[in-house]
Amino acid sequence: MKFSIFLVVTVFITVLSLFFFYQTAEAEYKNIASKTREYDAIRSVQLEAITKVDSLIDQLSLLGKQKNLNEGLVLDVFGQKKISLQRFLEQVDDENVRMHLMMASQLSDFLRVKDSIGSVSAQLRIVKEDLLRCIESNKNASMYNSGY
Predict the structure, then answer these.
(1) Is the pTM above the cut of 0.70?
(2) Which of 10, 17, 52, 53 qualifies as a cystine partner to 85, CB 3.0-4.6 A?
């Protein structure tokens, strides 16, 4: 009789343990599936933001590389893409695209710095050419004066 009671209690505890094990596993599976969907949504937003930022950087890299390129048109396209990116990032309003939003806000500063570097390089080239002309002129003048 004792054996039968212990056997029934043991079987009952085993079945009850298996039931709760499967319930826990099912709840964990639902939690994992929910987190996976959330991650996929975040990842798709990040990929779209990365694509838009890469497109902006590609447009920006065209500036100053080709002489026959219409820089005004490139800057116009760059501005439109930047505004589009900022609108997209502001609509998302998520912690996961904060870095992209900071990059987009600093692209104008980067463009100004790049433009300043370009203008300083042009001024430096002009000053260097003037200096070389001045040196050549002084050399010619010293040769002319030493000849008399």
Answers:
(1) no
(2) 52
Q: Which pLDDT band, with edges at 50, 70 and 90, does 67 fall under?
A: low
DSSP 8-state code for residue 63: T
Overall average pLDDT of the 86-101 stretch:
76
Q: Which residue has tokens 């980067």? A: 110
User: Six-digit token pair at 6?
Assistant: 């212990």
Tens of pLDDT along 111-130? 778 778 878 888 999 999 99
3-class SS at 93? coil
Indicate whether 93 pLDDT > 80: no
Q: How far apart are CA 105 and CA 78, in angstroms?
A: 13
Lookup: tokens for 67? 């002489």
119 burial level (CB within 10 Å; 0-12, 13-18, 19+) = exposed
Q: Is the pLDDT of residue 148 over 60?
A: no
CB 66 within 8 A of CB 27: no
CA distance 109 to 79: 13
Q: What residues contact 69, with CB distance under 8 A and at least 6 apart?
A: 62, 63
Q: How far is Cα 81 from Cα 52, in angstroms, rounded to an integer?
A: 8
